[in-house]
Task: structure prediction
Amino acid sequence: MLSGDCLTIQNIAKDDPWEERVYLAFITAPRCGSQEKSEDPFAFEARELVREALIGKKIDFTLEYQVSGRKYVTIPFEGGVTVNLHLVKQGFAKALDKRSPGKAYEEIKAASDDCEKRKVGLWNTDPKHIANHLREITYFGESNYSASKLLEQANQEPKPLAAILEHVFGTSYVSLYVYRLKSVIKM
Result:
């Protein structure tokens, strides 16, 4: 998952396997960071909400529109709410402006406006609030990366350390998000 509003879906049927990147319609979520770009506040929360709700599950989706070859979908979640709307209601995404009218967009726009009024999630611009929703990440190969220092810090943490396997590059090389009390190691 690249962010809270972009995911890859797979059809694992033996007679018609395929994999495709899709985007959640009518919304925009904060972007996850990389070694080249810093992460937006709430990006991790948005991505994790979608990951926990959908990964490894069979889903239905509705193609809402296409722009420049990108497919924008809505995905049912719980109680008649879409994942798209759920992200917005949690304050982890905003409604896009100027989309075609329809029930799904109108619900998302209303929820986004409500969160903005109440300053929920990414609408709360208080610097202390924002700071609590940013990850501190150390990437392998960065100038401040020190395996021995990170191992020493990890040994001081309660066991076991919680981690998310983010990507498998090969049998001996993976990317992990390791939860730490104040920062993150991404190897």
Summary: The beta strands are 6-11, 18-24, 27-28, 62-67, 70-74, 94-95, 137-139, 163-170, 173-178, 184-186. The longest helix spans residues 103-118. Confidence is low (pLDDT under 50) at residues 181-187.
